[in-house]
Design brief:
By secondary structure, this protein is α+β, with helices and mostly antiparallel strands. The chain is built from three helices and 13 strands.
Length: 205
């Protein structure tokens, strides 16, 4: 079932909309971390129950990270659980952007992850491949740019990418980092990472 980005599905989007508006400074107060995590888990559950799928085109653009949770190992349970989560402090700006290739009907493109802290900017880029039926976006970083006070001080390929660019599309997703998107709207998106944490981005305005 392809998701209708203009509908509200079966869960309440109020908490997520409130979080997005408050983070932008438009109106209202931020929901607590606990309330926001519960809303994200509810959205994830609803997406699974409805077997929603989102097209790659709906992810294209630039998104600002608003909120994220970590995970922690639980020895007695033999697994991991979500951390409490936190809003990204306003003195740090973290963006992720997705661009498609020029090929028509392609689920391949590029990811850029950018962190700005005062005069320092760190930007990582690399290829992506989107698996529409599972809403999974596999990615890898193979290039790094660092600038200081607007001046580029480092701009070259990285050595910590999982695979070479030419081999990326031949790799099984199990060997690559990925996001599993469970909510995509015009205003915000949410996903679970390979490590189990949740992330909530708002569209750059």
């Amino acid at each position: 079932m392809t998701a209708d980005l203009t509908s509200t599905a079966t869960f309440d989007l109020t908490v997520l909309s409130q979080a997005a508006a408050a983070y932008r400074g438009q109106r209202g107060t931020r929901p607590s971390a606990e309330i926001l995590v519960n809303a994200l888990l509810q959205a994830e559950k609803s997406a699974k129950q409805q077997r929603l799928t989102y097209p790659f085109e709906s992810l294209l653009g630039k998104w600002q990270l608003c909120f994220a949770t970590g995970t922690k190992k639980v020895r007695e349970r033999g697994g991991i659980v979500l951390g409490k989560g936190l809003y990204v402090p306003k003195f740090i700006t973290i963006h992720v952007s997705f661009n498609a290739t020029l090929e028509q009907d392609s689920d391949r493109g590029e990811i850029a992850n950018q962190v700005e802290y005062g005069p320092v900017l760190l930007k990582l880029t690399g290829p992506v491949q989107y698996f529409n039926k599972k809403n999974l976006l596999a990615f890898d970083f193979n290039h790094m740019l660092i600038s200081l006070f607007g001046r580029v001080v480092y701009n070259r390929p990285t050595h910590f990418g999982k695979v070479k660019t030419e081999d990326f599309y031949n790799q099984p997703i199990a060997k690559l980092p990925f996001f599993g998107f469970f909510l995509v709207t015009e205003d915000f998106i949410a996903a679970r990472g390979r490590g189990g944490g949740l992330a909530f981005w708002i569209r750059e305005t």
